[in-house]
Amino acid sequence: MAETPGTDDLTTAYSVFRDEARNVQPDYAPKSVNTDGWKGTKAAWRSLFQGILIIQCFLHGWLKIRDRAKHLKDRFAEISERVWDAYHAPDRRTFSQRIRALKNWATQCLSGIVLEKVVDLCEKRDRWLVAYQQPGCHRTSNMLDRLMRSMNRYFDNGQHLHGSLNSSKRHCRSWALLHNFAPWCPAATRKNAGWRSPAERLNNHRYHENWLHNLLVSASLGGYRICGPQKT
């Protein structure tokens, strides 16, 4: 939980992730991170991981266009094709060429708020080009967005966050436990080599056939911690 969306509070909140990741892998240091355009988020990641490459999410730029152009029907389909054709460019030079072509086409064929949003995406070319410095990096945050859909539903149904900051943190942790240990549907299980939840897939192990027992056993030490041998 972050008390405010400012850089200092976001840094404190993201430091929890950093510290817990380093409990598992002491030298953990990601090479890149994909974020939205919020300055506080970018500053927080730079503070926590020296030298990390900040890659702005291309999908967020596209969504601003989609929300204002989807009523255009056939023209919307053409806009979509041109935008994503630029995204799939194999190298920096080709990407720059396709972005310039997209902007030229938009100024001739579009108008109003749709034109404004397409041009805005094109003028952020330098932000999108950063991704070519790190081959294989995540260029969109759609994996996180899909995860956050269920989180948003959970908090909406619970009337959001109330009480102290500490109780809100526990509320977030409880959702994370349920998400990681509650069983997938049979189709998802088949696609994941028989593992029935994110926790099982990560650990390649199942303590108990009952998912709740599996959660209790897995969480019995209060999380992964590097420590010396216990006394006998």
Structure description:
The protein is mostly helical and 232 residues long. It has three domains: 50 residues; 76 residues; 76 residues, no CATH class. 61% of the residues lie in helices and 3% in strands. The chain has twelve helices and two strands; from the N terminus they run H-E-H-E-H-H-H-H-H-H-H-H-H-H. A two-stranded parallel ribbon has the order 1-2. Helix 3 packs antiparallel against helix 6 and helix 4 packs antiparallel against helix 5. The longest helix is centred in the N-terminal third of the chain and has 18 residues. The mean pLDDT is 91.
Brief sketch in words of this structure:
The chain has 12 helices and 2 strands, in the order αβαβαααααααααα. The protein is mainly alpha-helical. It folds into 3 domains: 7-56; 58-133; 143-218, no CATH class.
Topology, element by element:
Blueprint: H1 7-24, E1 32-35, H2 39-48, E2 53-56, H3 58-69, H4 74-87, H5 92-109, H6 112-123, H7 125-129, H8 142-157, H9 165-181, H10 186-191, H11 198-203, H12 211-218
Helix pairs in contact: 1-2, 3-4, 3-6, 4-5, 5-6
Can you tell me the residue ranges where pLDDT is under 50 for at least 5 consecutive residues? none
Q: Treating each run of at least 4 consecutive H or I residues as one helix, how many helices?
A: 12
Strand order of the largest sheet: 1-2
The biggest sheet, with number of strands, parallel, antiparallel or mixed sense and barrel status, is: 2 strands, parallel
Report mean pLDDT, rounded to a whole number.
91
Number of discrete domains: 3
Shape: globular
The proportion of strand residues reads: under 5%
- Ends apart, CA distance between termini: 38 Å
Number of strands: 2
- Helical fraction equals 55-70%
